[in-house]
């Protein structure tokens, strides 16, 4: 084991705990599954939109605490959680493209933590580098320039070794960038533009969240915006739904219970070139998809479920009429041709269950080691392979995904085959199935310094499936 990954005894213990991949170690927690609660018994809340504490020309100032809190995920049960702003689905920060946001976080968690703006193109000092932490009792102001296209971003903890548990316990929220050219498109807006954070959890008898990194597959309760299988009353008209997989580990495979199509309009980093009709959305941890669903197609009283392969997540209840002047244009966004790539790199993801590590190119993350240097403003092709077809000789394959900080990318191919139409836009996170190689081309704009890239199944990044690049001039 490298010193960088497992220097402290408590971190060693934690990592060993994480690598008991499927071995419950005799400590099987009492399960209070989502199935024990009647589905669709509570309304899906919308996370509050955070108001600026001060404003200057071109700049908004925001302030949020990082603090423990409680929330009601299962009806009538109080669950301790870790939050931004005391809210289990943190307040939504909604900004306009080109308008800078300075967000101050006051850490009252009782231990160190930080904040990463997932999908944000931000200076290295504001990226939430895993070792760049806010001590308990201290504050830090993150500088978000918002010089990027409109997109559904999110903010979450990135404390090295603790990111999986922190995010699992609730340190996640939306950060929505409104694009300057979006309004003229006429997409559903205002009350009909709805962020939905999807995730999972396992509960104990007392309603506490069980975090067992060794068994991330046993998290049967599905939630939307912090409630277990809620309903959401909708008008009979078009809605823009911003779906985020905020799970630490789970892959959602989503469809509508009635088999109807959704119209996908955006992916991680904003609008697709054109709308894509689809009846299935696969979102791995950290990925986003925006869809338009026209509930005007249904009579009042219709109930439409959003289903994962493991069960329903959310039910839309069509309960009133409303005027609808929104539309989904045939063209959403011009895609600039990719610049010529200056570099091709190969990265291989693998778990090492014997040494309790997760690796990129056979190395666990070491903050003292720079894995590559990348020229600012360059464009590179990365070939990322998931070699875990037979983890530890078990015969089982394990999916991974891959997230780049700072850089946005476009998928070139999967095992030589063209990407799906819904993957045709700019992305920052991509699912890679066992044995699969994904080739993407990334652009490294704007900022210098050290940024990480990693598997966004956070139990994997927490034990080393992460590397760092240094952007140089
Ligand atoms: Cu992984």
TrEMBL record:
PROSITE patterns: MULTICOPPER_OXIDASE2. The keyword Metal-binding applies. The keyword RNA-binding does not apply. Gene3D superfamilies: Cupredoxins - blue copper proteins. Residues 66-180, 356-470 form the Plastocyanin-like domain. Belongs to the multicopper oxidase family. This is Multicopper oxidase family protein. Keywords: Metal-binding, Oxidoreductase. It comes from Nonomuraea spiralis. Pfam families: Cu-oxidase_2, Cu-oxidase_3.
